[in-house]
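Might you be able to check the backbone structure tokens below? Thank you kindly.
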Amino acid sequence: MRYLVNISYDGTLFYGSQKQKDKRTVLGEVEKVLSKINNKSINVVGCSRTDKGVHASSYYFHFDCDKDITINSLNKLLPEDITVNSIKVVDDNFHSRYNVLFKEYKYVINVGDKDIFRRNYLYNYSKDIDINLVNEALKHFVGEKDFRSFTSDNEKENTIRNIVDARVEKEGNIVTIYIKGNGFLRYMVRNIIGFILDINEGKYSVNQIEDIINKKDRTSIGVMAPSSGLYLNRVFYE
């Protein structure tokens, strides 16, 4: 049987989602638990990769096994920073990564006083943000574009991605930016957020965005935003 599992995780103490030798990762911990339940090695395939310190409100993975697996059996053995939200049997041809239509990330920013108790779950920017300016800037990222200027992955030959929605919301001192697309390059969202915050500070203008996209040169922008404020928020399947 092929199972599709939805989890949430706190990425603070993980070296990302993907398995790494001698590193604590989300899927590494999941595989340990599933292998223990099944008394044999289980291979887990994730819907996406998230970096060290990045969180997920909704993350999917699939695996194959013949045993009945329940939410409770997994949650009982998983560490406290991972929780299972749902689990179901899917078609054997279903693939948690290749069947994804869109993914939505959110980035959480604190514009108020520094909050040390939430420092791992948001970016303590502690400066005013011009919401209208950010909205205007985000519009330039929507559509099918080459995002080579916003990735540090020089090995990727195809850096064209389609962003279908980008918006910003503010509630009290918390500003949340949402970006939804058919795929994302390494550090792409954090680079976009960092660049938009530089626009907010007047280091760049909205009028420069298209030129920088067309340059296809990562050195044309500044530093990326920290990982603490980033969440894989939703994953959309057919």
The helical segments are 26-38, 71-77, 131-139, 188-200, 209-215. The mean pLDDT is 96.
